[in-house]
Every structure is written in structure tokens, then in C-alpha cells.
């Protein structure tokens, strides 16, 4: 196209002369570096990461803050056996924001990463890798080899974790991390346990516990709550034959057929009523709960009255003690005499089943309690039937199902019962059932000997500790966590596993003598050797002589639950009390922790239990609880289903800052779930980062323009404070209100209020301040006004960048590095990194509520006017004749008048008038979408009644929000009100308003307005052309325009260029010259033609600024000698821009030809560019 060669020529010219104009050369280099037009945020973040590495930013921040007050933070340890997911990234981001902010408030914030190295997650990976099915496989392999295999994979992904965590901008110390498998950490766990042991808080019991058959170990109650799933289980009714009554049975219901071989009793409720019914067809008699008889009949598809006779009705207390035949013969003669009788207990209810519950005390907590009370079993386990091995498979005690996993055996057991005529009903039930949080397999309940920490007797202490803490949001503390503490159960801390911190108890064979070891040194005295590792395969051989004559004491087989280790983290990560005892005690409890909602029954709980038991204090002061991050459809994120975008791909596409702000600007930071959508991340870039970056880039560009006048841009806060411009005062006041808000809300850990407020401020900055003050910054009101407005924009961008640094650490660093160039050395806000800069102080003096109110009122008027334009589908380029603003409040009118020029510019209206008030009419419209179902057939009648409502009735609804229509109570959005002006019958007028203010826009068109609209179109085309040519604001170029007539010329384009030239130049903020004034020697940069739908084409030329000659004066000087005139012109064209500017500043230059000499004078014979030419009429 036209001008391509010129563009290449101009690029060469720019290379030769540099982008600096001659004026810039006189003023010196620019204050700022030129920002790229488009910023690829992910690539820029990578550069920032490298910059942080180059200056050792994180460690440098710690060196700078050393000696300042400590801000103590605990980071819970994740497992490194998998890669981080959005839950980790979210929690890590929250921690990063708070700790970065704490540093910027003058604290020293130690941040150490930690690794959870022990427990089921690691062992489960090894079991899968080596094909280990259970304990025999481990013992065959050797615990030592098994544990070393575990040690080998513990840090499989630590490198990836570090890379991903750092890529998301988190500053945390990986080099000085802690690991739960380190000797010091494990030793502190022993100290914690011994402290509890010495306080009498540890005991051993044979209890029914949640049990993972996949992992072969019991779990604690709070672990169970972490993974419930909806499953379909058997729902069967079984008949148990009574011993002393012919053809008579007891009906019991169960969802666990696999427990029936272990049945030793049935249980009823003494207070409930029971029936004995007889089947009319076969004479079989059943005992069943009266309240559930209808359900039983429904299940077996029988009619209670037609098919059965009721023989008797008795209370449960009357059938208690009845004996029945065992369902299976496996344990005849192997249990206590009281077995297979009916017991009674209040836990039996009418909610499900038959009001008769089968009892298998090895597999149910209530069963165990009831059978113990009824003498069916003894405390030591005598009489207990438990034919299940560690892996949940039947032992040879049940030969018919030997080797089958209990869940798999359900089918065969039902077949056996059906064959023997004992299965009355065979169905299924869908319900929520607990699954192992690690293996994702169904749990069972199984009686196992375990070690417990007492919690139930310390509930009040736990609640008291909790009351000393501050949670965000508060309801998680006050409700969810408080309720959990009020029902807290004793904590099973033992696991029948191998890779973990060994429980430091040495016991006699009868468990009557127990020695608890609390340190490595203490054990070394018994071992007679140095211990550098205390994993079980390295200490299980150590024996301790009995003091009670019971031979040698041996260590118990179990290891600690890994939750005990993470709960011990505050002490163990510091190797307390063996090292740094005083330092730890000064710093305890932590000022801040954060994790997800699921940790209310996990880490938060274990931290609270141990700190309360040890010190009767909470382990932390402040806590942020985040919600769960779900897939876009609201389901749990699943690697298998791939129902969520890979975090690393998202950060590569949109950047870490965008992910951080997307998550932080959502309900997930107040414990609500977040349905993660990649388009939400993309919108942050589009709606927040790009406008913010464009405002920053605009500042830089306009500072170049300012410096093009020979002045260095050195922003002044004082000039902003002294400004008479309301918008300058408003944006400065708003900034300090923001700083005050950020400080207050961050002190309260309310990230959910901070981030939206910051985003809203950025919107105000870009959509209002920058938009309404562009012309001032470009110098339309003079250099002083330009400097003040640029200083205001600079001050705001610098301060907001510092405030946003904890939230979006990358983009703020990128902007700050350039913005800081304007700060003098020694300035409090000048540093190597934005993250070394303290959060700005609040200047209360500049906070002005009156100015804030005035601007808010102006914004309201503009928004009302924009809506009018949108309704009429008339774009802003079309000027409007007038706008009338109506409001009764004199103060409102005064405020709006003071900002009238902004209203005129923003709405492109020629005239603004004011009225105190006008008569308006209200009208009501029913919300059909909301009311359709509620009103039903009354809808038409309601419509008619609404139409007949008086103005008084509508006003009453406006005030109260309530009204009754056709007997239906309507409120809120049920009835929508519209306001119109009475007597407004001009179709060219459009009205819009709220309760207090109405605006009328006049859309009447005339010829002059159309020419102005076309002028704006011309300006848009020229500006786009400049942008496409990649011109900088102060590039030395001139612009020219001419009309190329078309076949259907209307003449409008020529008329606009001729009559509205001054208006066009004002909008462009530079001159657009008539192309007829081109002298032919100009170096062209670009040339394009545009079709403006006026029948003609607009041809625009951009040329390098150079000599402009006064033809008439030159001819007079050379005596109309064409050759001499040409020599004069050509001579001046040989100089580069800087040299030519020097000639201009001297005032004249002599040109010699072979025969003559001429003195050419500046501004008489020549100038630099047409703008300086006094002989040209614009």
C-alpha cells in the first residue's frame, strides 16, 4: 500500500537520528524507558523472576528487615508425592499476600517451606510400586528395606514444587526448609508426646475405629470426615430364628451383609412398640417394629392387612432377653454364653430398618458398647468375633468366605442367606459413605487396639483456646469449628504402619509397665549407641529393662498418625525445646496461618489440640480459611476426568498475577467454593491489567511529550496537593482513602474486601481520571496543568503499585522499575524492588469527602447520560445539542456545575442547562420471570391492577419496597418502577433518572453537529494511522490531509475539513495541514486513504518534520532566480534534525552559490515544520 517504502525509509531515519527529537536532546534523556505497546504478561513475569534471582530478592528482603519486629507465620507441610493443584496455589497465594504485606509494614517475616514426609500417602505409593498387598509382604521384604524405599520417593517432586510455587510468585525459603522425617523434627514430636503422657493424656484401648483396608490401619475420626462419597450399598432384611418358638423369627435390617457372620446379638429399643405378625399363607411369624412394619411390607410388596395377622403388640423391654439361633455356625462354642440374645439400647430408632439392629461388636461402635454392657463380650476382647485380617479379608475362621475382601463377599453372603431361606428382602440403598482419604476406598469399622490422646475431657479448654483466636470468615470459627470442638472425640494417634515417627513407648507384654521416651539422648542411654536416625527399623531392636520384674520392655509396633506430626509443626520445625527455646517462646503463638476449609477437621484441629494440651493456649492468633476450588461445573477437580485446566498451562497463557487476582477477587477467600473458569482469569487480564497497563503507558508517553518542551519530568506531590483542579484533588483523596482502607482491612485479614476495592479503584483511575484528563496531560491547558495532572497520575500509579505488590507481585515490579526512575536518590519509595518498599502512609489532610461527593455526583450524571445514548444507539462521536440536568438539591447542582466541562466532554454535548425539578410520573411493570409461577392465573388481573395504581401508591412502594396486588405480597424486584417526565412529547428528547436526578438529552440533529461528528471520524482515522505507524508522542512528524472526490461526492468531507479544521486540530492536539501546502521535498513516513462513507476519500500523509519554506519571501530574496532558490532549499535540506534546529536557534544562515550569497532568516524565509510558519494560515 502507499507509504510502505516511506515507512522503511523512516525506520532508517529513526535508526540514524534516534527517536529523540532535537528538543529532547536539549533537555537530556527521558526520565522513563519506553514501555512496549503490548505486554505479554507471562513472558514479562519470567523476566521478573530472573531479576529477582539476580538480586537475590527474597533473601535480600529478609536481610533488610533483620532486627525489625518479628511477624510469625506457620506454613503447614504438604506431601511432595504429587504435584501442587489449585488448592495449594490458592492457599499459597493467600499466605504470600499476607506475609508480603507484613514485610511491607515493617516486620521481619520468616517463611520456611515444609514437607510432610511420612504416612499413608508415601506408603501407598510404595505399595502400588512394589505390589505390596499387606503386612506379610512388608515383613517378608523387611521393614528396613520398605522404609528406605519410602525415603527414596519422599522428595520425588520437590523440584517441581519449587518451580511451580516460585512461578506463581510466592516468596518462601526452600533452602532452609523443614522435613517431618528429619531427626530434629521427629525428636520434637517425641517431646510433645511425652509431655502429654506425663500429664496423663495418653492411653491404650481396644476400640472400634474407622479402618482403611487398603492401607491396613485405623484412621482418626477427623480423617473420616474428609472424604464422603455417595455409593450404592446392599439394603437387606434378614430373619433370625427364635430358639424357643416354632416357626418364629426376628427381622433385622443391615447395609453391611459382610458383618453378619460376626453377629452375636440383636438390639431393640425398650420404649418402642413391636409386633408379632403371622403370614396368612405359610404361618411364618415375624417380630418387627410397629413404626417400620409399613416400610417392611412395602419393601417385600405385601399388604399388611390382607397378608398378615397381628398376634401381639409388646414394648421392647418385654422382648429383651429372647434367645435366637446364630445365622451362621462359624462361632458356635467360641463365644460367651450370653451370645445370640436380644439386647436393648436407646440408640435404636424408628428412622430406618425394622427397629431391630443386628450386633457385630468388632465392626460397630454402638454394637461394641451395647454388647459390652450386655455381657456378650468383655473389655479385654473376650467373646469378640473378628474374622477379618489387616487387609479386610476373611480369615480361616470363616472358611466359606476365606480370602475374600469383605465388600466383595457381600454378594456370596446374600446368595447363601437366600439359599437357606433367611433373606427376606434384597435391595440397594444410595447413601453417603466414608472413604479412605488416601486410597479412595470404602472404610470399614473394626475393633483394633490403639493409642489415644484424651480430648473429650479437655473440650472446654479447647473451646477457650478457640475463643482467643480470630478467623476470617468468623462463622467458620464460631459454628463449624466450635461445633466440632464441642463434640471432639479422643484422638487415635497410632497407625499400624512402618514409615513414620515411631511412637516412643516401650511396654511389657501385658502393657502394665509403660516407659515413654522424650528425646534421642534418653533413648541413647538405653541403646548404648549413638542414634542419627530414629525410624522404627533403626530402633525397634532396642529394649529397656523392666523396673517391675517383667523382663525386657519392647517398643510398641505403631507409628504416629502423620497428623500428629503436622500438629507438632510449630515446635518440631524449630526443634523445640532442644534448640532456640527462648526465641520460640517469644514468638509463640503464630500471628498468622491459612489453609482450606477442609483443614477445620485436620491441621487447624490438631494444632489446637496439641497447643492447648501443652500450653493451654491457641497455636495461632489469626487465620484465613479459604474455600474449595472446584471445576467449572461445580464438581470436584479430577485428574482422571481432566475437568479443569492445567495450572501451568493457565499461567503460561495468562500469567500468575491473573490467576492470583482471579482467585483473590472471589468468594473463595471467605471460605466459599470457587468454580474455576479459565475465562475468568482471561477477563482479569482484559478488564483489569490491560486498562491499568494502558494508564501507566499513557503516563510515560505523555511525560515524553512534556519533556519534549525542554523540561525534565520530576513529579511533585506538593503540586498535586496545591492543585485547583477538582479531579486532581479527587484522585489524590481517593488514593489516600484506598491506602487507609487497605491498611485497615489487611490488619483485619479481610482479603475479600481489599482486592475488590483495589480493582474498583483501578477502574476509577482508568475510566474516570485518565479518561477525563487526557487533554490536560497532553498540554491543552498549558505546561503547568500538564505537569500537575501528570504528577497526580504518577503519584497514584506509584502508590497503588506498592499497595498491589503483595497481590500481583509481577506486574507491579515491572511498572515500579520504570516509575522509580522519576524518584530522586534517597527517596523513601526508591528501592531495588517494589517489594522492599513500605506500604504508603495515609495523608488524612487530603481526604476530602466533599470533593469525593462532587465527583460521585458527576459520575452519576454521566452514567445516566450514557444510558440515554445506548438506548438511542447513538455513539459518542455524534455531538448532541444539549443536556438538561434536574435535581432539587442546590448542593448537587453546584457540585455538578463545578465539573460541567467533564460532563460536556464525556457525553459530547454542546450545552448543559439546569432545572431545580420537573414533574415526573412513576409507572410499574411486573417482573414476569420472577412472578410467573407465583401469580399463575392471577397474572393478567395483577397487570391490570398495577396499571391502575395511583402515584401515591407507587411512591409508597418506592419508599417501603412492599405492596399487595390481587392478594399477593410483592416486594423488591417483583415490581419494577420506571420514571418519566410529564409533558415530554418531543421524540428527539430522551430522559433517564434515579430517585433524585433526571437528565434529558436532546438528540435533534443539525448540519453543524453532523460536521462535528465527521470531524471526530477524521480524527479517529488519523490517530489509528499514527498508532499503526508506531509513532511516539514526540516523534518529529507533520500530518497532511486532502479530499479525493468520489463518484457520489456529497461535499461533506471537504466542508468538514474546511469549516472544522480548528475543532479537528483541537481533538488531535496537533495540526492537520492541508495537503496543498506540501512543498514536494518532504520525507514521507506513511500515506493512506480512508472511505468515510461521505462519497469521498480522505487521503492522509505523514512526513518527517523538516524545513518549511516561505515561497514568496524566497523568491523575493533570490530575485525570482529559480536556480538560486533551489540551491537555498537544497542546502537547508542537507542538515539532520539536530543541526537544523541549531540553525533555527541562531536565527539565520548564509547560502553561497557560484555567483551570489544569500542570508536566509528563520521565520522569514524558513522554519522547522509548518507549525512554526507565521506566513501559513491554519
Radius of gyration: 42 Å
Average of per-residue pLDDT values = 89
Shape: elongated
Poorly predicted ranges (pLDDT <50, ≥5 residues)? 1-27
- How are the strands ordered across the major sheet? 10-8-9-6-5-13
Short description:
This protein is α+β, with helices and mostly antiparallel strands.
What does this protein look like?
With 1178 residues, the protein is an alpha+beta fold. The chain has a 6-stranded mixed sheet with strand order 10-8-9-6-5-13, with helices on both faces. A 4-stranded antiparallel sheet has the order 4-3-14-16.
Using brief descriptors, characterize the structure shown:
1178 residues; alpha+beta; 6-stranded mixed sheet; 4-stranded antiparallel sheet
Amino acid at each position: 500500500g502507499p507509504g510502505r517504502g516511506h515507512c522503511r525509509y523512516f525506520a532508517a531515519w529513526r535508526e540514524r537520528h534516534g527517536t529523540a527529537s532535537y528538543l529532547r536532546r536539549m533537555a537530556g534523556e527521558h526520565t522513563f524507558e519506553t514501555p512496549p505497546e503490548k505486554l505479554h504478561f507471562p513472558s514479562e513475569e519470567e523476566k521478573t523472576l530472573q531479576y529477582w534471582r539476580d538480586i537475590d530478592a527474597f533473601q535480600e528482603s529478609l536481610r533488610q528487615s533483620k532486627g525489625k519486629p518479628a511477624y510469625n507465620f506457620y506454613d503447614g507441610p504438604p506431601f511432595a508425592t504429587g504435584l501442587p493443584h489449585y488448592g495449594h496455589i490458592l492457599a499459597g497465594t493467600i499466605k504470600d499476600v499476607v506475609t508480603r504485606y507484613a514485610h511491607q509494614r515493617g516486620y521481619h517475616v520468616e517463611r520456611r517451606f515444609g514437607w510432610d514426609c511420612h504416612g499413608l500417602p508415601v506408603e501407598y505409593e510404595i505399595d502400588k510400586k512394589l505390589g505390596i498387598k499387606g503386612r506379610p509382604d512388608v515383613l517378608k521384604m523387611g521393614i528396613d528395606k520398605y522404609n528406605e524405599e519410602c525415603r527414596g520417593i519422599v522428595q520425588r517432586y520437590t523440584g517441581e514444587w519449587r518451580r511451580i510455587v516460585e512461578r506463581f510468585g510466592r516468596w518462601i525459603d526452600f533452602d532452609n526448609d523443614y522435613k517431618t522425617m528429619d531427626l530434629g523434627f521427629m525428636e520434637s514430636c517425641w517431646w510433645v508426646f511425652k509431655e502429654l503422657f506425663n500429664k496423663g493424656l495418653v492411653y491404650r484401648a481396644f476400640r472400634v475405629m474407622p479402618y482403611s483396608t487398603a492401607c491396613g490401619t485405623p484412621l482418626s475420626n477427623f480423617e473420616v470426615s474428609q472424604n464422603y462419597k455417595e455409593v450404592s450399598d446392599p439394603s437387606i432384611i434378614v430373619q433370625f430364628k427364635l430358639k424357643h418358638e416354632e416357626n418364629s423369627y426376628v427381622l433385622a435390617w443391615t447395609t453391611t451383609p459382610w458383618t453378619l457372620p460376626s453377629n452375636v446379638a440383636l438390639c431393640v429399643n425398650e420404649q418402642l412398640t413391636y409386633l408379632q405378625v403371622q403370614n396368612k399363607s405359610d404361618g411364618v411369624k415375624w417380630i418387627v417394629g410397629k413404626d417400620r412394619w409399613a416400610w417392611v411390607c412395602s419393601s417385600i410388596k405385601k399388604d399388611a392387612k390382607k397378608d398378615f395377622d397381628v398376634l401381639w403388640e409388646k414394648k421392647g423391654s418385654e422382648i429383651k432377653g429372647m434367645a435366637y439361633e446364630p445365622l451362621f455356625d462359624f462361632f458356635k462354642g467360641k463365644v460367651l454364653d450370653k451370645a445370640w440374645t436380644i439386647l436393648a439400647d436407646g440408640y435404636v430408632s424408628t428412622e430406618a430398618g425394622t427397629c431391630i439392629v443386628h450386633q457385630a461388636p468388632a465392626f460397630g461402635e454402638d454394637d461394641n458398647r451395647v454388647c459390652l454392657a450386655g455381657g456378650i463380650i468383655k473389655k479385654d476382647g473376650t467373646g469378640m468375633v473378628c474374622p477379618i485380617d489387616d487387609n479386610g479379608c476373611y480369615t480361616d475362621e470363616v472358611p466359606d468366605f476365606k480370602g475374600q475382601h469383605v465388600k466383595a463377599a457381600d454378594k456370596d453372603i446374600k446368595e447363601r442367606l437366600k439359599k437357606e431361606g433367611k433373606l427376606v428382602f434384597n435391595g440397594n440403598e444410595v447413601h453417603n459413605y466414608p472413604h479412605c482419604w488416601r486410597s479412595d476406598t470404602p472404610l470399614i469399622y473394626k475393633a483394633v487396639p490403639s493409642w489415644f490422646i484424651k480430648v473429650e475431657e479437655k473440650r472446654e479448654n479447647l473451646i477457650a483456646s478457640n475463643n482467643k483466636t480470630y478467623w476470617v470468615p468468623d462463622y467458620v470459627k464460631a459454628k463449624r469449628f466450635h461445633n466440632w470442638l464441642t463434640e471432639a472425640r479422643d484422638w487415635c494417634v497410632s497407625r499400624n504402619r512402618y514409615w513414620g515417627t515411631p511412637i516412643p513407648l516401650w511396654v511389657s507384654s501385658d502393657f502394665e509397665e509403660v516407659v515413654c521416651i522424650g528425646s534421642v539422648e534418653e533413648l541413647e542411654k538405653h541403646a548404648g549407641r549413638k542414634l542419627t536416625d530414629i525410624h522404627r527399623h533403626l530402633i525397634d531392636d532396642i529394649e529397656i529393662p523392666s523396673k517391675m520384674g517383667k523382663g525386657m520392655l519392647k517398643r510398641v509396633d505403631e507409628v504416629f498418625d502423620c497428623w500428629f506430626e503436622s500438629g507438632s509443626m510449630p515446635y518440631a520445625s524449630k526443634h523445640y525445646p532442644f534448640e532456640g527455646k527462648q526465641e520460640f517462646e517469644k514468638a509463640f503463638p503464630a500471628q498468622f496461618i491459612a489453609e482450606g476449609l477442609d483443614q477445620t477437621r485436620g491441621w487447624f484441629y490438631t494444632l489446637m489440640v496439641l497447643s492447648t494440651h501443652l500450653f493451654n493456649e491457641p497455636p495461632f492468633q489469626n487465620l484465613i480459611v479459604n474455600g474449595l476450588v472446584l471445576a467449572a461445573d461445580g464438581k470436584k477437580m479430577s485428574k482422571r476426568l481432566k475437568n479443569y485446566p492445567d495450572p501451568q498451562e493457565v499461567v503460561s497463557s495468562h500469567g500468575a498475577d491473573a490467576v492470583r487476582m482471579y482467585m483473590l477477587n472471589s468468594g473463595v477467600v471467605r471460605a466459599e467454593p470457587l468454580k474455576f473458569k479459565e475465562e475468568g482469569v482471561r477477563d482479569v487480564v482484559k478488564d483489569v491489567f490491560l486498562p491499568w497497563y494502558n494508564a501507566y503507558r499513557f503516563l510515560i508517553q505523555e511525560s515524553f511529550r512534556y519533556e519534549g518542551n525542554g523540561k525534565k519530568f520530576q513529579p511533585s506531590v506538593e503540586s498535586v496537593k496545591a492543585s485547583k483542579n477538582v479531579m486532581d484533588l479527587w484522585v489524590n483523596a481517593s488514593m489516600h482513602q484506598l491506602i487507609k482502607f487497605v491498611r485497615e482491612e489487611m490488619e483485619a485479614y479481610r482479603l475479600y474486601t481489599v482486592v475488590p476495592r483495589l480493582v474498583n479503584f483501578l477502574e476509577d483511575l482508568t475510566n474516570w481520571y485518565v479518561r477525563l484528563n487526557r487533554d490536560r496531560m497532553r498540554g491543552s491547558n498549558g505546561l503547568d496543568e500538564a505537569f500537575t495532572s501528570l504528577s497526580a497520575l504518577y503519584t497514584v500509579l506509584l502508590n497503588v503499585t506498592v499497595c498491589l505488590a503483595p497481590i500481583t507481585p509481577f506486574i507491579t515490579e515491572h511498572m515500579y522499575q520504570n516509575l522509580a526512575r522519576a524518584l530522586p536518590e534517597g527517596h523513601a519509595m526508591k528501592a531495588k524492588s517494589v517489594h522492599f518498599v513500605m506500604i504508603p502512609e495515609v495523608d488524612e489532610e487530603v481526604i476530602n469527602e466533599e470533593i469525593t461527593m462532587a465527583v460521585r455526583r458527576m459520575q452519576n450524571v454521566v452514567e445516566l447520560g450514557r444510558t440515554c445514548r445506548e438506548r438511542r444507539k447513538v455513539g459518542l462521536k455524534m455531538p448532541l445539542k444539549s443536556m438538561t440536568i434536574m435535581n432539587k438539591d442546590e448542593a448537587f447542582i453546584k457540585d455538578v456545575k463545578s465539573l460541567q466541562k467533564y460532563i460536556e466532554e464525556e457525553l459530547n454535548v454542546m450545552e448543559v442547562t439546569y432545572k431545580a425539578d420537573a414533574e415526573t410520573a412513576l409507572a410499574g411493570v411486573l417482573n414476569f420471570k420472577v412472578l410467573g409461577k407465583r401469580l399463575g392465573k392471577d397474572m393478567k388481573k395483577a397487570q391490570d391492577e398495577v396499571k391502575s395504581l395511583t402515584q401515591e401508591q407507587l411512591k409508597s412502594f418506592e419508599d417501603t419496597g412492599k405492596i399487595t396486588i390481587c392478594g399477593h405480597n410483592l416486594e423488591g424486584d417483583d415490581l419494577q418502577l420506571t420514571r418519566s417526565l410529564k409533558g415530554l412529547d418531543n421524540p428527539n428528547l430522551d430522559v433517564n433518572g434515579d430517585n433524585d436526578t433526571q437528565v434529558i438529552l436532546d438528540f435533534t440533529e443539525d448540519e453543524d453537529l453532523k460536521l462535528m461528528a465527521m470531524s471526530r471520524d477524521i480524527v479517529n482515522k488519523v490517530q489509528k494511522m499514527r498508532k499503526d505507524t508506531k509513532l511516539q508522542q514526540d516523534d518529529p512528524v507533520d500530518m497532511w490531509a486532502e479530499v479525493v472526490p468520489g463518484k457520489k461526492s456529497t461535499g461533506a468531507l471537504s466542508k468538514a475539513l474546511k469549516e472544522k479544521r480548528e475543532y479537528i486540530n483541537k481533538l488531535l492536539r496537533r495540526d492537520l495541514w492541508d495537503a496543498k501546502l506540501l512543498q514536494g521535498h518532504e520525507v514521507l513516513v506513511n500515506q493512506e486513504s480512508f472511505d468515510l462513507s461521505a462519497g469521498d476519500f480522505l487521503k492522509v500523509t505523514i512526513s518527517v518534520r523538516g524545513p518549511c519554506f516561505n515561497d514568496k519571501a524566497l523568491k523575493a530574496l533570490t530575485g525570482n532566480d529559480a536556480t538560486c532558490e533551489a540551491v537555498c532549499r537544497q542546502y537547508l535540506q542537507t542538515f539532520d534534525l539536530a543541526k537544523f534546529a541549531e540553525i533555527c536557534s541562531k536565527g539565520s544562515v548564509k547560502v553561497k552559490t557560484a555567483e551570489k550569497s544569500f542570508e536566509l532568516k528563520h521565520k522569514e524565509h524558513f522554519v522547522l515544520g509548518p507549525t512554526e510558519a507565521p506566513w501559513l494560515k491554519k
